[in-house]
Amino acid sequence: MNILVTGASGQLGHTFKALTAxxxxxxxxxxxxxxxxxxxxxxxxxxxxxxxxxxxxxxxAAFTNVDKAESNTDLARLVNITGARNLALGCHESKTVxxxxxxxxxxxxxxxxxxxxxxxxxxxxxxxxxxxxxxRAIINNLKEHFIIRTSWLYSEFNTNFMKTMVRLGSERDExxxxxxQVGTPTYAKDxxxxxxxxxxxxxxxxxxxxxxxEGVASWYDFAKAIFDEYGITINLKPILSSExxxxxxxxxxxVLDKSKIKQTFGIEIPHWHDSLKLAIKAYAEMKA
Length: 288
Fold this sequence. Notes:
By secondary structure, the protein is α/β, with parallel strands linked by helices.
């Protein structure tokens, strides 16, 4: 089975590379970085998808810098909306199933219950707005799609919260992290494994799905768990979001309801703390 992964130089793209390095899994995965396939250029997308016999396209390409999206609006719009539309149109022409990665930032964070797929999207920042409009561009142009909303993604690859905390923990004696933003850390390896399982199931239950690890944490809780697991001693202080202003507002509550994906695909989802232990171990081994 031939599979295309876009955004191959990103965190999730690297995770897929690591998981599919063994060619005995029955999957022939082709990786394209943004320099190799510009999803904002429809002609390039059309050529890649129609010349090659891809059964699935996993779109990991996105403008994900939440704060920079507030000032670099043209690029965020181009990648997250136009790019998503181009892939949907190309997949329609080539009869390829599109698996698109989206985000908890499509919600405003004012809920007090985990968000379901059918809940109304109300992004509070430009990044979330472009990701939601990218979802709509796919839905309007391609029936054969899976849109997976995830949250707080981290891994041993690229830049992310876990690696940033480890670095800062080795440089400082004291650190302040917000405690009034709540969500679920998601290990990229768990997300990638679930997507591979979805592909191997040959499902036609297309639509939007939520996926994160199980459990709930604040950014402060997540940071403390990282330091504890990595063996870093630091004076960690909880602060309010108002004490750490950022260009883009963050949702206060980003917990996702995973009932739909668990029932549809019969999967069990690990707790975020259990997965963090595996991620810390993998990162420590990479640095050794």
